[in-house]
Amino acid sequence: MIEIVTLIKAYQKEIVLNISELKIEKGELFGLVGNNGAGKTTLFNLILDLIVPSKGHVVSQGITVQESEDWKAFTGAFIDESFTIGYLTPDEYFTFIGDLREMNKSDLELHLTAFDEFFNGEIRGKKKFIRDLSKGNQKKVGIAAAMMGRPEVVILDEPFANLDPSSQYKLRSLLKKQAAEQGTTFLISGHTLDNITEVCNRIVILEKGKIVKDVPKTETTLKELENFFAGVKEAESFVLD
Amino acid sequence: MRPNLYSFSWKEVRRSSSFGRSVATTIMLVFLALYFTLVFLSLGVFVIPKVLADKFPGEDMARYLLIYFAFDLVTRQLLQNLPTLSFKSFIIQNIRRKQIARYLLVRSLLHFFNLLPFFMIIPLFFRIVVPGHSAIAAAAWLAGIVFLILSNHFLSTYLKWWINESSWGFYVFAAVFCGLYAINFFGIVSLTGLFGQLLDAMMSYPVIAVGLAALPVFFYWLNQRFLVANLYLNLVEHKQRDSNVRDFSWMSRLGDYGKFISLDVRMIWRNKRPRTQFMLTILFLAYGFLIYRDVDKGIPEGIFIIGGLLMTGMFTISIGQFFPAWHSRYFSMLMTQNFKMKQFLQAFYYLNVVVSFVYFLVTLAYGFIDVRIIYFNTALFFYHIGVNMNLIFLFGSGSKKAVDLGGSAVFNYQGMGAAQWLIAFPLIFGPIIVFYLFKWMTDSIPALMLMGSIGILGIILQPQLFNYFAKIYNYNKHRMIRDYKNS
């Protein structure tokens, strides 16, 4: 469970994130949507203690991430390509992360076999460095590593971007499967509304650093979201007239 | 209107991040440039005329110029970069490939290496060539020299393309070079003599100088032909071939630190910049042959300190000055992983201990030159591990600039900040001061023993020091992530 109370991040008095209250339950598939610069990555960086909040703190499973490092044992994350190591082969990278997560060889093998279809035979067993892979394949490596070692919380920033359509479908089912089997809490952001609404069971819209909508997924969520984002655009062009 | 490509290159220089590099680096660079300028000026104005007059009266200076040009060619091979910067944005535009090639080649002429020899040549020209020769002859001499500098420039560029393409190119180059040297050295064909005759003939028949102009034109043409045929994206971006991925997985079994040691080793071995820096430290082991020379009454003790310190500690000085910025590109990922900062530091420490120990063993061979080298290097090895290693960690905690692993290792100031220059002072002058202080109080041998003891004390205190460093690295974590992102 992740709890956030009055979390503020500001750069030189310009507030980029201001969340008065947010609670993410265990096992929830939490979807975060919003336009560019809405503060999605900032929120994730704060939950991962990669940046310092101007005010407030994040409590993950009872641990205040700004004070203790113990959250690292049960958290996996992939924010961007800088979360992989370019000069390692994918297999070496998986071994490295697996070691850090205290997985043995068979655990690692089991975990990665589930990703075989997702990898499409282009990742494992190749003597190719991650830096020489395509952007999409680099992303696949990062996502698979983030979900390793039975983490209780997994944070994925725009996991669907840069992936081909069939990989997007496969990733949807991988995420749902792990959540169902291991009770993993997923925090996922993205721009492709259909992917997010398909996977997540709760959707939060961020706009200019603030939560403007927080809804459980229903039959009509996708339609509502589309209307919301299209509406913002229409309203603007309307003002211009 | 046709855009002028050269105006882009000016903007590129003006707006590049290295132009706005730190004040310390700029000062250091200006200092180095001035230093070399002065060295070459004094060579041209005083040293060469004096040596010629004293030692080789009546002999011709011209024949020694070939040695200079040979030396120049080798230096350029090592230090000059290929003119491939930023052609990517041009190749899909409506610009002829030939024009891009011409732009890249002409631009490459603007290099310190092409300016430097003139500081030596011009004074020589006025002191030695102008007196006693007609104006036309002197002008022919100067023109000939300029053509030779230009051809050296384009020849070394062309050789470098060629060496880059094939894996054995470098060895062919080295073999041909050594072969020519041997032919000249053993007097089979006196190449230097022939070269001298050529320059002399040029002064009698200035037409030859015009003929020499064909040389740079020819090498330029070779370069242009190569570029026009190879101006594709993969010209600079060499992808790793499947076969030569070296596996270091056995290192992961070295206990708790294994996974980070193998990460460090892979980082050094698989990236151009750290690998070249590492290779240079191996080359540096030969530094002793340069500095261990008799001066009046044996080798001075200061030289032993410098030699022992630099040769055993070069790996730490060269690689360590950028610690932990080598890992900057994925630093935030590391910071979300479940490990203790202490492990990360310890792994780098043990890697340095092992490499420095190997280097230390190698340098013991210099004991044949002077047995005191063994005493000095032993004391310095302990001092290095116990004190300098910790200074590296201390400076590393203030690390600000990300390092690009792919760049070249020489004359690359990316990732350099004031800290990288400042750290040299305590690392190198520290032990010198400590030694002379103790020597002043006691004598050489007790001073060495004291130095070694300080080192051993540092090694004994290492566990506590690691705890301390882990704390300040953790404390600086957010700042480092932010600074690496911004640089």
Descriptive report:
The complex is a heterodimer of chains A (241) and B (487). Chain A is α/β, with parallel strands linked by helices. Chain A has a domain at 2-83 and 155-240: P-loop containing nucleotide triphosphate hydrolases (Rossmann fold, 3-Layer(aba) Sandwich), CATH 3.40.50.300. Chain A has helices at 40-47, 90-100, 105-113, 116-119, 135-146, 165-182, 193-199, 221-240, and strands at residues 2-11, 14-24, 29-33, 55-60, 63-64, 75-78, 153-156, 185-190, 202-207, 210-216. Chain A has a 6-stranded mixed beta sheet, with helices on both faces. Chain A has a 4-stranded antiparallel beta sheet with strand order 2-1-4-5, with helices on one face. In chain A, helix 6 links the parallel strand 7 and strand 8 (185-190). Residues 234-241 of chain A have low confidence and may be disordered. Chain B has 22 helices and no strands. Chain B is globular and about 75 Å long. Chain B starts with a helix and ends with a helix. The chains are: A alpha/beta (241), B mainly alpha (487). Chain A binds chain B through residues 45, 48-52, 69, 72-73, 75, 77, 79, 82-89, 92, 95-97, 99-102, 126-129, 132, and chain B through 239-240, 242-243, 245, 249, 252, 259, 263, 266-267, 270-271, 329-330, 332-333, 335-339, 405, 474, 478, 481-482.
